[in-house]
Amino acid sequence: MILPFLYISDAGASGRGVFSSEDIDAGTLIEVSPVIVMSGDDRKHLDRTLLHDYIFEWGHDQQECCMALGYVPLYNHSAASNCEYEMDFDHALIGIRTVRAIKAGEELCINYNGDWDDAKPVWFQTA
Question: How many CB atoms lie within 10 A of CB 6?
């Protein structure tokens, strides 16, 4: 499920990103997408490829990884994100939910650290 007013567009230096053509209320579930779950051994191989930047740690013990389908791989990172992701390990799904109101035309971002308001640098940022 991807809400019909979400779209992919140019996000400048970040490449492509997910945007909304309509205002969205805080707390709105905007996407639920399936994931492909892979083993820790698979992750060792993926970490040596471009896919490293698009996979998520997966499982209650985070010993697996997953590739999300839908728009999920295209949400860019922001330490002050306006969305958060919710993992459903039992059903192999990731949901994206707004954490504040979104204006039409605004880019939707998640925090790659896991918590929507975690200000720690991520692997591609320099200190």
Answer: 18
Q: Determine the Cα–Cα distance for residues 44 and 85; give it in Å rounded to an integer.
A: 24
> Residues 7, 8, 11, 15: what is their CA dihedral angle, to the nearest 10 degrees?
170
The bridge status of strand 107-110 relative to strand 76-77 is parallel
Task: Please list the residues that pair with 36 across neighbouring strands.
Answer: 67
Q: Return the CA Rg of the chain.
A: 14
- Every domain of the chain and the residues it spans: 6-110
Q: Provide the edge-to-edge strand list for the sheet that holds 76-77.
A: 6-10, 16-20, 107-110, 76-77
Phi and psi (nearest 5°) for 45?
-75, -45
Low-confidence ranges of the chain (pLDDT < 70): 114-127
What architecture does CATH give domain 6-110?
Beta Complex (2.170)
CA distance 6 to 88: 22
What is the Cα–Cα distance from 5 to 98, expressed in whole angstroms?
14
